């Protein structure tokens, strides 16, 4: 009479045989889920952001990742842009730090 050993441990019998391909199928399914839930949306976002970076031109109103809102005054070929925050302040930032191109007139509405 043992309270600590369950009957399942003491049971004798052959271990159940599973298909040798079940592990491979499970790994493929997890790989597909990982691709469609994580990698593919990230690649789409990166592509949209790259298109946004290439479409920035002089006169666009932009929002930076740091929260600055300004008008693009100069676009350099080296990957930097100059943004006028108001009449007296200009900031030079890397083109990659633009989060969004805002509609015309956004700065006046603020």
From TrEMBL:
<keyword id="KW-0811">Translocation</keyword>
<dbReference type="Pfam" id="PF02699">
    <property type="entry name" value="YajC"/>
</dbReference>
<keyword id="KW-1003">Cell membrane</keyword>
<protein>
    <recommendedName>
        <fullName>Sec translocon accessory complex subunit YajC</fullName>
    </recommendedName>
</protein>
<dbReference type="GO" id="GO:0015031">
    <property type="term" value="P:protein transport"/>
</dbReference>
<comment type="similarity">
    <text>Belongs to the YajC family.</text>
</comment>
<keyword id="KW-0653">Protein transport</keyword>
<feature type="transmembrane region" description="Helical">
    <location>
        <begin position="20"/>
        <end position="39"/>
    </location>
</feature>
<keyword id="KW-0812">Transmembrane</keyword>
<keyword id="KW-0472">Membrane</keyword>
<keyword id="KW-0813">Transport</keyword>
<keyword id="KW-1133">Transmembrane helix</keyword>
<dbReference type="InterPro" id="IPR003849">
    <property type="entry name" value="Preprotein_translocase_YajC"/>
</dbReference>
<dbReference type="GO" id="GO:0005886">
    <property type="term" value="C:plasma membrane"/>
</dbReference>
